[in-house]
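User: Please predict the structure of the protein below. I'd like the answer in structure-token form so I can feed it into my own downstream comparison script.

Assistant: Understood. Taking the following sequence of 65 residues as input:
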Amino acid sequence: MNKHTQNPFEPLDTELPTLQNSASILCPRLYSKHLFATANEVIIEHAGEEYRLRLTRQGKLILTK
């Protein structure tokens, strides 16, 4: 599986970080195609509040509280 199709829930590589790949090790990557596989909207709960992340017809993301 290449870096762009990695399952976001699989463990990260154990190689030592370099300047080029350190951001991906420190910050998990989620792919919108996985989030929006069956819907155009997902609900994110943060600090007891509900947020909606929507995918527009133009392929843009909108986050609202």
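That's the full token string. The first strand starts at residue 41 and ends at 46.
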